[in-house]
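Record type: ASSEMBLY
Status: queued
Input:
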Amino acid sequence: MSVLRNNKRKNVVVVKEGGLSYNEISDLMTKSGDKMNHNNVRAIMVKSFMKIADNIGRNMGVYHDQSKLLQIAISSDFQESVIEIITDELKKGK
Amino acid sequence: MTNVLSDYQHSIKLNPLLTREQEIALAKKIKDGDVEAKQKMIESNYRLVINLAKKYYQNNKNLDFSELLSESQMGLIKAVDRFDHEKGFKFSTYACWWIKQAIMAYINESSCLIKTPNNNKSIYIKAKKIRKEYLEKFGYIPNNNEIADILCISPTTLNNVENTYVQVSSMDEQKTNGGTSQNKTRALAELVPDESNTNSEEIMIQSELRKLLIDSLKLLTPREEKILRLRFGLYTDEDDIQNFPITLSELIELQNR
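Status: finished
Output:
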């Protein structure tokens, strides 16, 4: 179980309470029939953020190449803001 | 300033400084009700009025010098009325305090929008002076209780006095904006941003971005969505196995590992 970390370093997304580590996620996914390791989990996560960044960019008329998208996807600021908006939406939906 | 002074300088030329004997003679006449003697005494002491007014004007340039001069003159007139030559002091020694008092009263009245008693101003100045002296001598600033002890007043009084002398600005006060010469001054009210009213354009952009992001989330496959939810603990229902394939009991189990 990942815990709240005292985030002194930059470019590190603090996993909120209730979030899981890559290993824990890979265990769970493997149990539910989708075999993967922690590396795959990270790759899927980064790919998801790349998809989001790409779609937002395209809609705003900005086209980024893959390396730029990767840079955006792994940036802690981007990840944190996406998660914040999703959390807000989930709260609204409740 | 020069125009105001020229009137005074003319009467200064006509009225040279008084000797001790002349002062006493005039004081006696004033006591008997001689108006001319009073006028002579006033005009002969204009130098003192100008000197003191100039001295205070140096530190309070925002004040009107002619007003300051007239107030000082009022102090001089008061001093002439109350001067008692029998006590043995020179007139200038006595008048000096009355002029200073009149100047200080005027400065106090015009430096702050809120009118406060004159003794409050003197307490405020003394406290400021003590702080400065302590900082220079001992390298620390005494607290309000210590200052109140030194001034022989209660700490509450000192606190009240200090709270009175906060910087107050009028919303209609004209401020320079650093723009073109035509648009140089503006009322303070025009320059203060209204923080309660957020920019509508900003709100629109934010909501647009939000919508875009929500749309982008729809592009994710169920697998990707599951991993994101697990990674960041995003769930609406604890038993929502479909979107969040972990129940509360499993979560506790993981925590205990």
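Annotation: Chain A is about 65% helix and 0% strand.
Annotation: Residues 38-59 of chain A form the longest helix (22 residues).
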